[in-house]
Amino acid sequence: MNTILRIEKLKKHYPIQKGIFSKKSGVVKAVDGVSIEIQRGQTVGLVGESGCGKSTIGKTLLSLQPATAGRAEFDGEVLFDIEKNYKASQQRLMAVRKKMQVIFQDPYACLDPRMSVESILTEGIRKHFHYTRTQRREIAAQLLHNCGLSEESLQKYPHQFSGGQRQRIGIARALSLQPEFIVCDEPTAALDVSIQSQILNLMLELKKEFSLSYLFISHDLQIVRHFCDEIYVMYLGRVVERAQAKSLFTHPLHPYTKALLKSMPDFESGKSKIRAAIHGEIPSPSSPPKGCLFHTRCPYIEPNCLQTQELEIAGEGHWVACHKYHTFNEVVS
């Protein structure tokens, strides 16, 4: 295994503008110094509450929006390095984009209703490859077959399909350029529970067949637990814990991670009620708390928590941004 994607100290800030002249009055720190490393063939999960910056990372990585600071490198190619004023040229970025694709959250909004399925699947192929129309159609038909749909679907339009079928078309489109890496932006969030399992199983099969690597963005811990190899937990634009999936769920270290896990419905006992809830409101990303971002909601706060907490190694393959995790570990568990 080797590193296919490396993100270093990524920041994405949005200006707050007020008044008639749109004077800048502050910034929203959607992502504030996040570093992620993904190995080839690995599925890395990005979890956290809504608004923590998960999807923003995916969009910034794919150059759908510019980064404020940081560095990103894909398969040895530097995508951007803000400190060095470096950004890949359009020609080089186009070459890299064939290897990096995305599966969107909403299967109803991500497909153009005016385009047939064949046009949707071959749009990228026409731009990046020199195939004949017959060859493009054959590729599109094979993509549909790989994703569990028939060739007859090529002449249909998105409104003629169910949500699960539309998501299969979205997955087929992501595969059309023969990528090596796919950003999965909550690909099952808008689907019924019964359909979610089908889509996840399909993605696992495609990962093995095409040797894919995934960045899997989700707020559903049950899905992430069984789908991902490694998990990054985000809170207010920063990573507070990073660990292998099994280690994170059996031995969580950060109070926020523990609170998230305790907020999961308990189905094993036969009762679907919530076991615990995270108290307090999420602070505004435009004025985040000083020190540990979670200290305003943490029941174990002490004076040292007002100091900035950086990720530190807490065990093999396990990092946590909490200076006192080892002192209350047994109590919180």
Main sheet makeup: 8 strands, mixed
The gyration radius over C-alpha positions equals: 21 Å
Query: How many helix segments?
Result: 10
Q: Which structural category fits the helices and strands?
A: alpha/beta
The residue ranges in which pLDDT falls below 50 over 5 or more consecutive positions are none
Shape, per Cα inertia axes: globular
Distance from N terminus to C terminus (CA atoms, Å) equals 33 Å
Oligomer: single chain
Round the mean pLDDT to the nearest integer and report it: 89
Largest beta sheet: strand ordering = 7-8-9-3-10-11-13-12
Helix-residue proportion: 25-40%
How would you portray this structure in words?
35% of the residues are buried. The mean pLDDT is 89. It is built from ten helices and 13 strands. It has 333 residues and is of the alpha/beta class. A hairpin with a 2-residue loop joins strand 4 and strand 5. It has an eight-stranded mixed β-sheet, with helices on both faces. It is 31% helix and 26% strand.
